[in-house]
Amino acid sequence: INPTNAEIDLKEDVGNALEKAGGKKFLDAVKELFKSNGPLDVAGAILGQAPGLPAKFIIHCNIPQWGVDKCEEQLEKTVMNCLTLADEKKLKSIAFPSIASSRTSSRASGRSPNQS
Asked: What's the first-to-final CA gap in the chain, in angstroms?
């Protein structure tokens, strides 16, 4: 699972690691996926090829911004959409990173970005 945004960018921690591991072939596959399908809705998920990686496929999902209205419901919907794609493709395993941790809103939580 690659938790990302509507543009399926690879700027967050997981995306950076995937790009580094998969190289240009992976980056080109992500660009083509976005070009073919356009932006992801919040909680949307899309299955893509994973060239250069041990996995055959990767699911990119547009995770909600933490602290916005109905973010918990949107996060649950995101996970369900990922699981549905995995089931439809009959994937034998799926790996979820901590998908809401990198796009938190410190203002919404009342904490500064340096507090845990």
From this structure: 24
Element (H, E) at 46: strand 45-49
Strand order of the β-sheet with 57-62 is: 2-4, 57-62, 45-49
Sign of the CA dihedral running 90, 29, 2, 20: positive
CB 29, CB 23: distance < 8 Å = no
- Give tens-digit pLDDT for 2-13: 999 999 999 989
Taking a C-beta distance cutoff of 8 angstroms, is the pair 26, 50 a contact? yes
Q: Report pLDDT digits (tens) over 77-114.
A: 999 999 999 999 999 999 999 876 545 443 333 333 33
pTM comes to 0.84
Read off the tokens for 55. 């996995």
The backbone region for 61, taken as left when phi is positive above 0, alpha when psi lies in -120 to 50, beta otherwise, is beta
pLDDT of residue 67: 81
Across the strands, what pairs with 57?
Answer: 49
The residue with tokens 């996926």 is 33
